[in-house]
Amino acid sequence: MLTTIRQERLALVDRLRDLPAEDWDRPSLCAGWRIRDVLAHLTTPYLVSVPAMAAELVRHRSVSRAMDAVARRIGTEHPTDELLSVLEANADTPFRPPGLPLNAPLTDAIAHSADIRWALGDPVADWSADPTRVRPVLDFLTGPRALTGFVRPGRVRGLALVADDCDWRSGHGAEVRGPGLLLALGILGRAPAIDRLTGEGVVRLRA
């Protein structure tokens, strides 16, 4: 899995290497974050020490709010060339949040790459991850460990999620069907991805 994470990170670095300056402030698919903020989030483990991150968690009393504040600060204070170099240099670093499996950084790499590429208008067919790479992401997002800052409690309750590009399904209830990557983005609340899914459960997922 670490090889896959490395490949996803380096592919994103290659995509952003010559990005025009005006595009860095374009809103990403991740609500409230510019493209530079998404990149900053991916470099956070290598720029912010564990004690400093712990202090942010205490200050904001929420994993999500702390990560949001740190990403915005890094995205504003650090040049994008520096952030790309940091991500490239740490592409094969096996960092993962305490208590979480490698599925967590894999989810970050794949989902946030999609947040950026979608915002840049790249055709989905040109950058969508190999379905076999997305399966561990789907397993993670529908499991209990994803509740630690990735997925809201109850997000997929009452839904039968079915990937139509790989042998994967999870849950029971109203069906939501689509490519694995779009399912993952839908679970994470990305509205444009949800719009491309099908099934009677889409309305519930969108709500």
Short descriptors:
207 residues; globular; single chain; 6% strand; 3-stranded mixed sheet; mainly alpha; 55% helix
Give the helices and strands, then pairings.
Elements (H helix, E strand, L loop, with lengths): L1 H15 L18 H13 L2 H11 L2 H15 L2 H10 L13 H17 L4 H4 L3 H11 L17 E5 L4 E3 L3 E5 L1 H8 L3 H4 L7 H5 L1
Parallel strand pairs: 1-3
Antiparallel strand pairs: 1-2
Helix pairs in contact: 1-5, 1-6, 2-4, 2-5, 2-6, 3-4, 6-8, 8-9
3D structure, described in words:
By secondary structure, this protein is mainly α. It has 11 helices and 3 strands. The chain has helices spanning 2-16, 35-47, 50-60, 63-77, 80-89, 103-119, 124-127, 131-141, 180-187, 191-194, 202-206, and strands at residues 159-163, 168-170, 174-178. A 3-stranded mixed sheet has the order 2-1-3. Helix 2 crosses helix 5. The radius of gyration is 16 Å and the shape is globular.
Give a brief description.
The protein is mostly helical and 207 residues long.
The biggest beta sheet is recorded as: 3 strands, mixed
Helix content: 40-55%
Please state how the strands of the largest beta sheet are arranged side by side: 2-1-3
Uncertain runs with pLDDT below 50, 5 residues or more?
none
Number of strands: 3
Cα shape: globular
Evaluate the radius of gyration.
16 Å
Strand content: 5-15%
The helix/strand series, from N terminus to C terminus, equals HHHHHHHHEEEHHH
Cα distance spanning the termini: 33 Å
